[in-house]
Amino acid sequence: MRARPYALRKATNAVALGLTGAAAALTLGILFAILAYIAANGASALNWDFFTKLPAPVGETGGGLANAIVGTLKLLLLASAIGIPVGFLGGVYLAEFGHGRTGFVVRYASDVLNGVPSIVIGIVAYTLIVLPMKQFSSLAGGVALGIIMIPTVVRSTEELLKLVPSNVREAALALGVNEWKTVLFVVIPTALRGVLAGVLLSLARVAGETAPLLFTALSNRYWSHGWLEPTASLPVMVYTYAIAPYDDWHRQAWAGALVLITMVLGVNILARLGVSRRASAS
Amino acid sequence: MILKSLRMLLVPAALFTVALPASARPALVNGAGATFPYPIYSKWFAEYAKTDDKVNFNYQSIGSGGGIRQVTAGTVDFGATDGPMSDDQLKQAPGELIHFPTVLGGVVAVYNVPGVTGTLNLSQKALAGIFIGRVTKWNDAAIASANSGVSLPPNDIIVVHRSDGSGTTFIWTDFLSKASPEWSKQVGKGTSVNWPVGLGGKGNEGVTGLVKQTPHSIGYVELGYAQHNKIPFAKIENAAGEYVDCSQESVTKAAAAAVATMPADFRVSITNPAGSGVYPIASFTWLLVYRQQKEAVKGAALVRFLRWMLRDGQRFAGPLGYAPLPPEVISLEETAIEKINVPS
Fold first, then answer.
1. pLDDT above 60 for B10
2. Residues 63-82 of B with CB under 8 A from A
3. A278 pLDDT tier (thresholds 50, 70, 90)
4. What CATH number should be reported for the domain whose range is B106-259?
5. Interface pTM, i.e. ipTM
6. % of chain A at pLDDT higher than 70
7. Which residues of B touch A63 (CB under 8 A)?
8. How far apart are CA A45 and CA A276, in angstroms?
9. Helix A66-92 and helix A138-162: axis angle, to 10°?
10. Do domains B28-104+283-337 and B106-259 have the same CATH topology?
11. How far is residue B344's CA from residue B342's CA, in Å, rounded to a whole number?
12. For chain A, which residues lie within 8 Å of any Cβ of chain B, measuring from their own Cβ?
């Protein structure tokens, strides 16, 4: 085989390097373009009222999205109450005990669930909760988000528990600690920081979900009391405001998007910090 | 560790919910449906809240089709629609639903023709021809004959319609079906139809945006959207052969023609009525309320709101691009409100 001329190889290298570099730059560029665009458009509508007032009626300027911010926090609280225990315990099972056929089925089911479009989960919550209760509610929205959280928490917990070196487990077992105690007092504490980061990432993922909320939590112009009333949420309000023909609503939609993306970004960074500190500690 | 961090995250949320007093708070009545009257409903519920502190009305504009579905499923306390429910749909509801007309609105043909600054006149034949795909150039004789003195470009017409199920589409296609036997046979009327030609836009806003950005396009939107976005809209030929601008007055005249023949259940189409000065593409928009109310507080609040809407609410219609109800219809509705049963 004849070696290709050096110049050609060098050119190929340059082209490949250029393409990968361009792709990387594009990825970063898109992220920062989105952030900058949202910040530029949203910052002007951000003020104290935005965080403390209810939405203003059509045709009146001002008002805020306080109920949507609280609504999103409530929905995330309920989603966590469902998604974290189920997902965490499922992940522990898969990592420590799910070696056989059942483990395979659970793992597979969790991956399939992860691939189900969120709007389908919304329909499930609508059919199982909204229709029988004859009521759109935070409950239904929170359950939908919780179901979406489960597979991400399961898989991240499993992966992070598996990262715990097996000699740590073996050391515990060799000292006469039984299996469940090993898992509970040795393996889980070792991986806890990473697991927590995984939970935060899944929380950030569901925070921006709009589709499953449209027909479960619906929306609400007022405060939502308790768990059985429709509630406003940031993603749905951004959607509603963005397609309306009113300039003031467009500004508030941008501001809502800014608050939402700041929340998600903050949680993401928090999660990354957790992981990196774990990495440096071990 | 997990618990602690979560608590940090979520305690503020819990505090917010607890901090609001549970005792003296107003009842929440939920409704959903049409997007077409959303601006006026939003205004009404805000104004009404100032006069009645026992209730808050939460209205979500999810589309007429969605409103009918949700009120039938009983997930909302009232619905709203721009196209009256069909007999079949009414049969599927678990109880008797009453249609209450709230205001009138017009649907206009918005266009973007570079070089044309004045208002175009569109005949019924031309309009049906454009939307069926037979009239394809702006300088077609069907358009030019009604616009002498206007220099129309020889460009292709780009038709824009709704991509989603919509009450606005129902009004538009209801009119075209009456204006053109060909349309009635080939396409028909409905909240979504099988369009022979054109691009789809989502919502009144989507169609408005597409027409604004696309030279040589034509589409249809609710009057308020055209006014707010300052897009020109055509004078439309009515049944008397006049070219009429869409205004509060010409839409009110369309309703006046229907007053004499108003059926007891208020389900009436007022597109293309006979009469002079009438704008032919207009409609009532309706609230859907169960005759037998389930809850005393919510039912009584709905009745109070309906009375207020007929008496005090109508004056908000004009500034928002709608036409108020004719007095005859108001008195018919006041009688119909008496039929609502509220448990004590």
1. no
2. 73-76
3. low
4. 3.40.190.10
5. 0.79
6. 95
7. none
8. 35
9. 40
10. yes
11. 6
12. 56-60, 70, 73-74, 76-77, 80, 84, 130-131, 134-136, 192-193, 195-196, 199, 214, 218-223, 225-226, 229-230, 240, 243-246
